[in-house]
Structure formats: structure tokens, C-alpha cells
Amino acid sequence: MTALEKFKQLFPHLQFTETDFYVGRFGTCYKNEFLDFNIETFMSKVVAFSQHPTDCEYEWTGPIHPAGFPLVGVKLNGKRRMINVRRLIAMVSEQDDLTGFQVLHTCKNPACLTKDHLGILEDPTAGKPLPWASKTGRKKQND
Ligand SMILES: [Zn+2]
Q: What does the pLDDT read at residue 63?
């Protein structure tokens, strides 16, 4: 299975254009700005399980924030940022920047990316200026 096929399983509601296929990247709008990440790189850090002790279907093998959420580097407006992978998945699935909502996991697995295990919770303080998970780590790299 190619990275793109795996990616489409993880994001079943997405619609792709020829351009997405061609450049191997996926973009989603965040407040009229463009979030950019590489599917191959992204999917190389995702493992899928047919059976898992806590029924998690997908797990992140990339970095995990000490507070217990998976992190991925994306580009926003040409600048690299670290973002909560679960938040990214929820933003893409809901087609919304989710300002005012927290994205949590409902299982006990910090690396979990399973869509059914995502919880979206209303929180007026969240998402302003979230969704960036980490502002302290990795400040400037090759902007
Ligand atoms: Zn889970």
C-alpha cells in the first residue's frame, strides 16, 4: 500500500485533486492560510494495527509532546511549525480550524491517531492562537 493510499484511509473524507497527487503534498486551509505537509513523511510515522490492546487503529511513531500528544512539523505560510497530529486530523476531517475547541484522545494511548478515539471538546480559551501545539520547541528552522 502506498503512503497516499494509507493516508486516504486515515482521512476518508478528504477529496484530492490531481495537483495533490502530483506533488505528493496535502494542503488544507487554516484561516485562509495554507497548511502544507508531505504525505510520504507523515505516513512514514503512522503505524496501523489490525489488533491493538486498546483497539487503537493508528498510532504515531514520531515525537510525542511531554504533555501527551503527538507532534508533526507542518508549514504554515511557508514557516515550519509543530502541530498536534490529532488536532491536524480533526481539522482536516471537520474542515474547520477548530478555534474554541480542544482535541483530545478518549483512549489512554498518547500516540493514538484513531479517528474514533478523538474527542472534540468546546473550550473558549482553546485555539487562540492554537492550533499550534508547541511554541517553545524548535523556534526557527530554515524559514
Ligand atoms: Zn486510541
A: 93
